[in-house]
Each structure stands twice: as C-alpha cells, then as structure tokens.
Design brief:
The chain is an alpha/beta fold. The chain is 18% helix and 34% strand.
C-alpha cells in the first residue's frame, strides 16, 4: 500500500523570516538544536542540496533524501537523491513521518503539502540571504509553544512552536 507520509516542516526563522546567511544559520542556539534532535530522532529528512552541504547541516542518522538536478555518481550511506519534490516524496512513501529541512525553495514547495510545522521563532531581526516563505496563519493552529529566554549560551530569545494544519 502506497500512502503519503506525514510531512513536517522544521525550521528556525527570525522575526523578519531569515533562515540563513551564506548557507549557514545566523545564530547558535544549543537548546533549539537539542529540541530539533529530540523531535527528528529516527526520522527521514528531505532537503535541498545546498542545505545538505551546509557546514552546520544536520543529517538524519536514518535516511536523507536530497533534492538536486545533479546527483553525484556515488551516494554516501543513508543518502538518496531525487530530482524534485514529488520524487523525494515517492522515495519515502513507505515512511510514516518525514521532516523537511529546507532550504527556502524547498520550504516554499513543501508548505502546501505539510501537515505540521515545527517552527522556532528567533526573537530578533537579523541579516540574511535566505528566508522562510510567508504562510497564511489562518491555515495553521498553534498546538504548542515553548519560550526560551536569552542567556549565556543563547544570544537571542526564541519560541519553539508546533503548528498543525487546520482540517
């Protein structure tokens, strides 16, 4: 039986929608990374090539599907390649939960298909060159939110939010 997996977008963005600068995250938030690892443990990831190759990229220890028009001749272990979103979803049709890690164009294409968004809001305006796409908040219900203040390890306060698509 071939069914579509539950697609969850997971991202952190600033209040001005920045998600990246020079193919890296513009902040260092250890507790947010710990949250990411807990939420995504043992799950398959879909991401674009640049996100996969970013110096601070997080990879699934289970399964990574990379969207690229130029897959390498030899894939690394636990890495598969797809030419587009539908190909990536088809490769993961046997999974129950799949996390979408970006970048910006992948988020934009996946937003209409996603069931959930684990979206951390970094409470700052930061410089960046990659942005999370605008979305209609009327389509989403905030199911959970956890605020984390700035401290010695976190330059910015942030809120880890879980949104579920309204039926």
């Amino acid at each position: 039986m071939n069914t579509k997996p539950h697609l969850s977008i997971i991202a952190a963005m600033s209040e001005n929608h920045v998600i990246g600068l020079n193919n890296s995250l513009p902040w260092h938030l250890p507790d947010e990374w710990a949250h990411f690892r807990k939420v995504t443990a043992g799950k398959a990831f879909i991401m674009g090539r640049k996100s996969f190759e970013a110096p601070d990229a997080l990879h699934s220890e289970y399964r990574n599907v990379i969207i690229t028009s130029r897959p390498p001749a030899q894939a690394e272990p636990r890495v598969e390649y797809a030419r587009d979103i539908s190909g990536a979803i088809a490769l993961l049709s046997d999974e129950t939960d799949v996390f979408v890690l970006g970048g910006a164009s992948v988020f934009e294409q996946m937003l209409p298909l996603a069931d959930r968004m684990y979206l951390t809001i970094v409470h700052a305006q930061v410089e960046g060159d990659a942005f999370f796409p605008a979305f209609d908040s009327d389509d989403w219900q905030l199911a959970d939110s956890e605020f984390h203040g700035a401290d010695d390890d976190h330059a910015y306060a942030f809120s880890m939010n879980l949104y579920i698509r309204k039926p």
